[in-house]
Amino acid sequence: MYHTFIFDLDGTIIDSETIGLEALQAALKEIGINKTLEELRFSIGIPGLRTLEILEIGDIPTALHSWLEKQKPFMENVPIFPGITEVLEQLPNLAIVTSQNRKELQAGFKKLRIAPYFKTVVCADDTEKHKPNPDPLLFALQLLKIKKHEAIYIGDSIYDMRCAKAAGVEFGVAAWGLTSTSKFIEADYIFETPNDILRLKADNTPTSYII
Fold first, then answer.
1. Looking at residue 117, what DSSP letter applies?
2. pLDDT means per 10 residues in the chain (211 residues)?
3. Strand, helix or coil for residue 161
């Protein structure tokens, strides 16, 4: 049982992955690079800057700006996965560890009504190293002033799982946005629906939010 629940954002809380991939695809096309969505799927779960480095983009700042601008109109109305809000209302000590940077986050998440549920949000620009490195998750634990065994990290990518394992934090797969969980053999839990998370809430842990 856990007193703190830390979530990934994209593909876990919000259904934004296709939006991000299509925006990246369009931004690359503008500079003469044609990639299929499947070829760009490696980018899910890692910071945008790292994605563009892997793609060996010459002018990374311009490409990143174009990517964010193409994504922004859709992120303002990005859908939350069904059942997530109801579960967040019942969980204590919530946080987010995301590969989005602050600028990306402000394009959509801040406009969602779920933002007040979270005590802290750790973005890619909050730590020098990023997922799958454990530093972002360890930084979240530090901000929350809790021990590793008191928390669980919930995400939808291999990078999330490796980050949790490296940090010594147990990991649960957000399976509701996935077609397969076969690659998550090291996960501690597989959650088919958000509601499955509630069984891991520690007894006598109050929740109180003002929305």
1. G
2. 94 88 93 94 86 94 90 79 96 94 77 87 94 97 96 96 98 94 95 97 57 35
3. helix
